[in-house]
Amino acid sequence: MTASPLPRDVHTVYWEDSCVRMIDQRILPEEFRILTLRDSHEVADAIRTMAVRGAPAIGISAAYGMALAALAASQRSVSDFRSAVEGAARELGSTRPTAVNLLWAIERMLRVLLGTDLPPVELAEALLAEARQMADEDVAACVAMGAYGAELLPDEGNILTHCNTGSLAAVYHGTALGVVRSAVEAGKRLHVWVDETRPRLQGMRLTAWECLQLGIPATLISDNVAGSLMRQGRVQAAIVGADSIAANGDTANKIGTYGVAVLAHAHGLPFYVAAPLSTVDFSLESGDEIPIEERDPSEVTDARTIRLAPEGVSVYNPAFDVTPSRLITAIITERGIAWPPFDTSLTALRNREN
Ligand code: MRU
Fold it and tell me: Which of 46, 49, 150, 153 is the most exposed place for a label (fewest CB within 10 A)?
């Protein structure tokens, strides 16, 4: 399978001239700017401040961050080199707690580091090669998910999505929005309801922008509109991405996803999750074990720099929620579709040869 051109033909995160480059998602859609990051601390900061966000994209960014740390330390002694790369792994791994792809990518890099006794210069090159390989695999996984998932969507109708799961959330093409993109490219006549996604507005700022770039018909709605649209028969399916999926299929995704799933269930609509198998944490029995990130109260109280809430009010700002697997119709992966019961279907896909 091949992927069609990205908006502006740019990958979300990539390696160039011994630096990590990435689209700065904090300032889209007003400004399209590529950041150049020269050390692993800058990459950690970019993940923490959400210059890059979306589970697959932060995983690949962390891998490149470790490659930067390795190249910077490649002239040092073996023990100094190893502790520099392990230190970068710790810093990058502590940036955002929910997206399992972050730790998955770091662990994969650490396996390269610990799996050989090559000299530092060669090991640094091997780490960079591994990060590049992961980025390529991410593109292939998203395109494959697109092809599998497109089959599930109706030939025409309205698809509701939450947060941003397009190219910007991965290296290229995306997960849930990638499925819609593949379906539209295959000739399906779909229109997307884009949840604005309070409080960070990934839907309004990023998904709406990507749909415009790609020519996918889309309408922006506030998060409160979904139920009313479903009651009126104006939604045919909902599709979202995932930050962490437990072995039983319980899925953590952007806050508000659970509400969409409950609404879809109440209206008898399919609710799909699209995520690469690297998002499944088979060590977690259920979603109760998924750590949920809490972010700064100012994301809720302020609109950019303007304070709207009264001073002194207390705020609860979880970045993600967990949707129980009983509300999920199917999980779309790069190796095919997992159907309930997910504990067996996800394991079968993991064990299947590519
Ligand atoms: O806080 P964010 O913007 O990183 O959250 C992103 C999401 O919740 C996405 O839906 C998820 O990472 C899947 S994207 C491929």
Answer: 49
Domain boundary among 95, 121, 143: 143
Span from the CA of 118 to the centroid of ligand 1 (angstroms) = 36
Q: What is the CATH number of the domain that holds 174?
A: 3.40.50.10470
Question: Which candidate, 68, 74, 62, places its Cα nearest to that of 134?
Answer: 62
The answer to whether the pTM exceeds 0.85 is: yes
Separation between Cα atoms, residue 3 and residue 250, nearest integer Å: 30
Please identify which residue in the block is written with the tokens 């990590």: 20
Residues labelled catalytic:
243
CA 320/CA 279 separation, integer angstroms: 14
Task: Provide the domain limits for residue 337.
Answer: 147-351
The answer to whether position 3 is within a domain reads: no
Q: Which atom of ligand 1 is nearest to the CA of 55?
A: 12
My answer on whether 119 and 158 are in the same domain is no
| Residue 261 C-beta-side C-alpha neighbours within 13 Å | 24
**CA–CA gap between residue 281 and residue 61 (Å, rounded):** 19
Which CATH number fits the domain that encloses residue 118?
1.20.120.420
Which contiguous run of DSSP H or E holds residue 195? strand 189-195
**Which atom from ligand 1 is nearest to the alpha carbon of 53?**
4
Say if 300 falls within a structural domain.
Answer: yes
Whether residues 235 and 266 fall in one domain: yes
Cα(163) to ligand 1 centroid in Å equals 7
For the chain, 354 residues long, give each residue's pLDDT as a single digit of tens: 444 545 557 899 999 999 999 999 999 999 999 999 999 999 999 999 999 999 999 999 999 999 999 999 999 999 999 999 999 999 999 999 999 999 999 999 999 999 988 999 999 999 999 999 999 999 999 999 999 999 999 999 999 999 999 999 999 999 999 999 999 999 999 999 999 999 999 999 999 999 999 999 999 999 999 999 999 999 999 999 999 999 999 999 999 999 999 999 999 999 999 999 999 999 999 999 999 999 999 999 999 899 999 999 999 999 999 999 999 999 999 999 999 999 999 999 999 876
Report the separation in Å between the CA atom of 240 and the middle of ligand 1, taken as the mean of its atom positions.
Answer: 9
User: Do residues 245 and 307 both lie within one domain?
Assistant: yes
Q: How many Å separate Cα 109 from the centre of its chain?
A: 19
